[in-house]
């Protein structure tokens, strides 16, 4: 499902992150429906399709979907789709709770909520946008992920109640434009199979 969407490179991004420079990037960011723009340390940054392809392998194409914009999804119905993803199809749950999902939908929900469109709270309940993206993943409907990320940047990027989104991605953009990071605070993001928990170390 994820390879069909060409998300594998994006999901495997690792390396150094620069929290202070990421905040500057987000503060100075704007978007003209085609490209992302920002300025960091006096350097103008334009994130166009060439940069997206180089850093993530993504292209600015595919279905443009969002809440209220599901015309490319046929007869999508969020309630019916959610019920089809449940472990117990007879469940009378009136909320879109992650806990009741079957194994595959639950994994996809985790990827959507924590990685593709990360939010800062209420990870236990799926939004309509989450369900739309899960529906596309499960039904192999090619999504314009560049557009999804653009929109999510401007939805949550400057809101204090959300975690800063896409820190590793923005740090990769900063490195792509060869911005000086010598004196910056650096945090390393490892691949999932390289992370060692405190419990494992004891």
What would your notes on this structure say?
This protein is mainly alpha-helical. It folds into two domains: 7-62 and 143-193, no CATH class; 63-141, no CATH class. The protein is 39% helix and 9% strand. It contains nine helices and five strands. It has helices at residues 8-11, 19-27, 49-56, 78-84, 103-116, 128-138, 145-156, 167-176, 198-201, and strands at 15-17, 30-31, 36-40, 43-47, 187-189. The strands form two sheets. It has a three-stranded antiparallel β-sheet. Helix 2 packs across helix 8 (167-176) and helix 5 (103-116) packs across helix 6.
**How many β strands by DSSP?**
5
Shape descriptor reads elongated
Query: What ranges have pLDDT less than 50 throughout 5 or more consecutive residues?
Result: 192-202
Structural class: mainly alpha
Instruction: Please state the oligomeric state of the protein chains shown.
Output: single chain
Portion of residues in beta strands equals 5-15%
- Record the strand order, biggest sheet: 2-3-4
Q: Over all CA atoms, what is the radius of gyration?
A: 18 Å
Overall pLDDT score = 84
Sequence of secondary-structure elements: HEHEEEHHHHHHEH
How much helix, percentage-wise, in residues?
Answer: 25-40%
Q: Count of helical segments?
A: 9
**Major pleated sheet:** 3 strands, antiparallel
Q: How many structural domains are formed by the residues?
A: 2
Between the first and last Cα atoms, what is the distance in angstroms?
A: 37 Å
């Amino acid at each position: 499902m994820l390879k069909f969407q060409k998300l594998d490179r994006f999901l495997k991004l690792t390396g150094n992150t620069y929290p202070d420079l990421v905040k500057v990037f987000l503060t100075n960011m704007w978007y003209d429906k085609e490209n992302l723009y920002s300025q960091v340390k006096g350097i103008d940054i334009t994130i166009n399709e060439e940069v997206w392809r180089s850093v993530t392998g993504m292209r600015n194409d595919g279905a443009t979907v969002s809440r209220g914009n599901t015309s490319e999804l046929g007869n999508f119905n969020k309630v019916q789709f959610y019920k089809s993803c449940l472990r117990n199809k007879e469940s009378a749950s009136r909320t879109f709770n992650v806990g009741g999902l079957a194994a595959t939908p639950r994994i996809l929900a985790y990827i959507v909520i924590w990685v593709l469109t990360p939010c800062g709270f209420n990870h236990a309940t799926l939004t309509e946008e989450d369900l739309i993206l899960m529906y596309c993943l499960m039904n192999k409907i090619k999504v314009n992920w560049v557009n999804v990320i653009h929109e999510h940047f401007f939805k949550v990027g400057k809101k204090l109640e959300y975690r800063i989104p896409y820190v590793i991605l923005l740090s990769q953009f900063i490195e792509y434009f060869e911005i000086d990071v010598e004196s910056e605070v650096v945090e390393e993001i490892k691949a999932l199979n390289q992370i060692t928990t405190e419990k494992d170390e004891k």
